[in-house]
Amino acid sequence: MSAVLHEIRAQARDIGFPVRRLLPSAKAQSVGPFVFLDHMGPARFEAGSTASDVRPHPHIGLATVTYLFSGAMMHRDGLGSVQRIEPGAVNLMTAGRGIAHSERIPSDVRDKGIAVEGIQMWVALPVEEERCEPAFDHYPEEALPRWQEGGADVHLLIGEMLGRRSPVAVKSETLYAALSLEAGGAFTVPAAAPERALYIASGEVTLDGEPVAPATLLVLEQGATPIVRADSAARLMLLGGAPLDGGRRLMWWNFVASRRELIDAVKDDWQAGRFVPVPGETEFIPLPER
Hints:
The protein has 290 residues and is mostly beta strands. It has one domain: Jelly Rolls, CATH 2.60.120. It has a 7-stranded antiparallel β-sheet, with no helix packed on it. The chain has a 7-stranded antiparallel β-sheet with strand order 2-3-4-11-6-9-12, with no helix packed on it. A 4-stranded antiparallel β-sheet has the order 5-10-7-8, with no helix packed on it. Strand 20 and strand 21 form a beta hairpin. This is Pirin family protein.
């Protein structure tokens, strides 16, 4: 596939529920500003419990981006934000100099046995913004551009593409879109950002006539405009943007930074309890020993 720079297969992980990890990988540490990509679920959770809830934990130097296909999650953070995340919405939490948050499964989702599935990503902040004040923004599904293009339903989550612009405010050039294709549908991937990748979340597809397995991330050549065609109903994510300023980022646990000393300092802050706590939460995830 001449349009493909790297083909990355998902690595299965269990973080209390199943995830498929695509970024970072040995082949690509980032695509545009995206430095982390997990496809979580689909998973159902034990009713009447808090099993697999993600207790409060810290972040620095990044923005988390959550997008669900099904189910729901409840976000809480140290700013006092309380937000239920529903399918099609975008949750954007800018960690900056540091923020703690939790992600829990709502009781109604547990009790009804609804599967939770979605994409969780981290966007590295520009070097001059990595110590910014933390912030939280939520964009409901109906606030984000959606249209039919060729044989695809296009949901533009972040950035500009094909004459449309998302209202989601980010700190660097970023492209993020959800694509749904029915069997037989085709879509020409636009050269809408300097760096791009296409993730096949589900379905059987070909790229320029070559078959691609589900749970594969295709990092595309700059300027290439390949045609993706669905042999069955398929769901894909298009992501990318401008290359990271300042070069490769350091990553340790939930921390992203341009300098090692920033990570070392925040390790001490979390261990010493200096993060602003998440209101209503009494639990937390301790600093890993590694």
